[in-house]
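Data card: per-record layout.
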Amino acid sequence: MEQVLFHVMDDDERVVVYSMDHDGGHRAYYPGRNDVNEMWPRYGRYKPYLDSWFEEKLGSVVSSPYAEYHPGTSDYPRGLAAALTHDPVLSVWAYVTDPDILVSVEQVKRALGACRKKTEEYLDRAGVSPKRDGGGYRTLAIGDLKRAFGQDTAGRIVLYSGQIASFLGVSRRRVPGIVDRLGIGIPDRPNVGVPWSTLRRVRRTGPRSYELRDA
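The structure for this 215-residue chain is written out next.
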């Protein structure tokens, strides 16, 4: 089943990130580390309370002030995040993001400054193969592009509302307001667009607050 990343926060500091499926099944996410406490040193203190909270919630419909969320649906992890954020006992909040941002071949072409044919050649040479998403579009993970072409090239990719929403863990309708408040949008564009080099510096500091940090 498709996995998402479930971020548990205390103020603006991460307690832990879980890899979570659509039923709320989860495990601590600590890629490249030998031990969960190496990556999330504060997790041990919160783990018993989080385990108890999930034991009570999982398998049942959860409610936020805005909606109800059912197990097995793609929105269920976001519902759990909303419920945890508004829990009157636990002093943590949570949000959900996708594991990686998917970008189109067209976006890569613009970042490389190449024609379509050359872009396809560069991707093939780098061993990066576009895959078709649920809508039939050919996409690539931005993490793969960074490894293949370097951070500078990946940083030039301009991301749009849906991709920005996936990175920040918000709904698409909230993206224009966030981008305007932070002043990170590309000027004189009819649609919201933010370079990855800028977007990757944005951090969530609260359920509805954001900060642009130094690289």
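Known properties of this structure: The chain has three domains: 4-97, 102-156, 159-212. The longest strand covers residues 13-20.

See the next section for split statistics.
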